[in-house]
Structures are given as C-alpha cells and as structure tokens.
C-alpha cells in the first residue's frame, strides 16, 4: 500500500511541475506578444504621423496652387501677361555682352 501512495505522490508532483512549466511558458509568450503589440502600435503611430504630414503638405501645396491660379487669372483679366520675376526687374535688351575680356 505504501508503494501505491509513493507512486501517486510522485505522479502528482511531476504533473504539478509540468503545469508550472506550461504556465511559465504561456506567461513568457504572453509577455512577448504584448511587447510585439506595443512595437506595432509605435510603428502604426509613426506611419500615421507621416501620413498626416503628407496630407498637410498636400493641403499647403493645393492652397499655393489655387493662389497662383488666382494671381494668373487676375493678370489675364486685366489684359496683361505674367512675366517671370527676373524679367520684371530688368528687361532683356537682346545684346550679348562679352565680360571675359
């Protein structure tokens, strides 16, 4: 009878150790999954920030383009033409100067 008790006690102890090992392994896997999830959240936040910056740039460039279109249309309505800024500063004379001599 003593031999049966010793065997069942040893079996319970072995099962207990296996259960603890499984719990520890599951805990490590859960911690690793949580770390991976946090890493993915950080990556997603960074990509969302970049997307927002891109959208801001689109809005800025769209507003500039509309302003340029309005300026161009206004000049055409007045009957003039838009000249590049360089030409407005000093008209070209059509002569080439030799400045190497």
Question: What's the Cα radius of gyration?
Answer: 39 Å
| N→C terminal distance | 122 Å
Helix content: over 70%
Largest sheet: none
What letter string, H or E per element, gives the SSE order?
Answer: HH
Broad shape? rod-shaped
Q: Which regions are unreliable across 5 or more consecutive residues at pLDDT < 50?
A: none
Number of helices: 2
**Average predicted confidence as pLDDT:** 80
> Tally of extended strands?
0
The percent range for strand residues is under 5%
Structural class: mainly alpha
Oligomer: single chain
Summary?
The chain has two helices and no strands. The chain has 101 residues and is mainly alpha-helical.
Name its key features.
101 residues; mainly alpha; 2 helices; 0% strand
């Amino acid at each position: 009878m003593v031999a049966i008790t010793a065997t069942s006690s040893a079996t319970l102890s072995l099962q207990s150790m296996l259960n603890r090992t499984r719990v520890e392994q599951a805990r490590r896997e859960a911690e690793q999954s949580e770390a991976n999830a946090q890493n993915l959240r950080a990556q997603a936040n960074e990509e969302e920030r970049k997307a927002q910056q891109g959208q801001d740039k689109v809005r800025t460039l769209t507003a500039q383009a509309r302003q340029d279109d309005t300026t161009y249309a206004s000049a055409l309505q007045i009957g003039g033409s838009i000249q590049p800024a360089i030409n407005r500063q000093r008209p070209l004379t059509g002569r080439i100067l030799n400045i190497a001599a």
